[in-house]
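Hi U.,

Before I forget, here's the chain from the pilot set. I'm dumping it here mostly so it's searchable later in email.
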Amino acid sequence: MDDKVVEEIRMHQETVASDNNSPLHLIREKELEISGKVLAAKRQADEIVTEARKKAAELVSTAEQEGGAGAADQDAAIRAEAEKQATALHVEAKAEAGKLQAQVDSRREDAVRLVLDAVTAV
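Structure:
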């Protein structure tokens, strides 16, 4: 207990022991009564603050968990979209390579003939 509280209790006991109905005695009793109420209010306030801090910590924890889950969902969606685009690009590149191969094949005979004409002309 606080030293002040202990001192007030001692003072109260001394006052009660003297059993005076003097104004000083009555004032002192009211002071002790008010001090007790203030102490009770302080304890209650401390409990409220402690409970509020606990709830705040729980809310932060829940928000972090939900945020992490949301981020994981978003990450999965982005990855799926990226894989979809990569597959489309792969198919497109394969088709373009096929077209180029067809052009090479169709022009190969002309290229061979051109090279042979150049070599034999010398």
